[in-house]
Amino acid sequence: MIPMRSGFTLIEVLIAMAITGVIALLAYSSLNTVITSVDAVRREASQTHQLNRAFQVLSRDLRQVVERSIRDEFDGLESALEGGPLARQTLAFTRAGWHNTVDLPRSTLQRVAYYLEDEQLIRASWAVLDRAGSAEPREVTLLRDVEAFDVQFLQDVGQLRIDRGIELDRRLWADNWIADVSQPGSVIGLPAALVIRLELEGWGEVERLYVLPPL
Fold first, then answer.
1. 8 A C-beta contact, residue 41 and residue 189
2. Which domains occur in the chain, in start order?
3. CA gap 109, 81 in Å, rounded
4. What are phi and psi of 66, to 5 degrees?
5. Which is the most buried residue in 6, 133, 171, 213, by most CB within 10 A?
6. What phi, psi does 12 have (nearest 5°)?
7. 59 touches 169 (CB < 8 A)
8. Are 70 and 78 in contact (CB under 8 A)?
9. What is the Cβ-side half-sphere exposure of residue 14, based on CA atoms within 13 angstroms?
10. Tens digit of pLDDT for each residue in 96-152?
11. pTM
């Protein structure tokens, strides 16, 4: 009697290969989903870190704002703080606390400005307050993928109101903080508070309220 040979038929092999392919595809899809999720979390964590860092720098500057007007490169007078669509920069002001660790012959006051350029939030600073035409600012990119950067100003902190405990009552807020252009050489005092609004790609709007320190 001739013994029977055991083995797989072609159909069984094809079925086994199909099952293995399905399992491999499911495993790849699951792994790809995990990798994509991890990358998304990393990008969000990085953007959150950059956003927090930008607001930390801005908060540090605003906590040290001082009422010191300056002369620009055109010998024009700029108020201690200016901002809004009608101003040269979205936000510019004079701050104290510019550390001089190597004892250079300069002031501890510094002029800084914040503005949007190519969807980047830029912080500019000048080495002198009253600058000549050749004075160039030092620019640092604080945040990328910024679609909008706006500031609103409040004259009196006593006017600060919260509407229904959710949003600020904007009726008393000004979009521009500049001196009266009909009075050459005039300056405007410091506002009592301001609101910074950033619109970030993929995030939406982020706002911060700052009440300036009393002089």
1. no
2. 53-211 (3.10.610.10)
3. 13
4. -130, 155
5. 213
6. -65, -40
7. no
8. yes
9. 3
10. 977 766 666 667 899 999 999 999 999 999 988 988 777 789 999 999 999 999 999
11. 0.77
Among residues 91, 63, 64, 60, the alpha carbon closest in space to that of 78 is found at 91
Contacts with 121 (C-beta within 8 Å, 6 or more apart), sequence order: 54, 114, 115, 141, 142, 143, 144, 146, 149, 198
Report the alpha-carbon distance of residue 129 to residue 108 in Å, rounded. 10
Output the CA torsion 141→127→136→194 (10° steps).
50
Check: CB of residue 108 under 8 Å from CB of residue 64.
Answer: no
Give the span between the Cα atoms of 38 and 47, in whole angstroms. 14
Q: Closest Cα partner for 176 from 72, 56, 83?
A: 83
Which pLDDT score is estimated for 131? 84
Polymer length in residues for the chain: 215
Rounded to whole angstroms, the Cα distance separating 68 from 90 reads 18
Quickly list H helices, the chain: 10-63
Residue the block writes with tokens 């001082």: 66
Determine the Cα–Cα distance for residues 119 and 198; give it in Å rounded to an integer: 11
- How many CA atoms lie less than 13 Å away from 65 in the CB half-sphere? 28
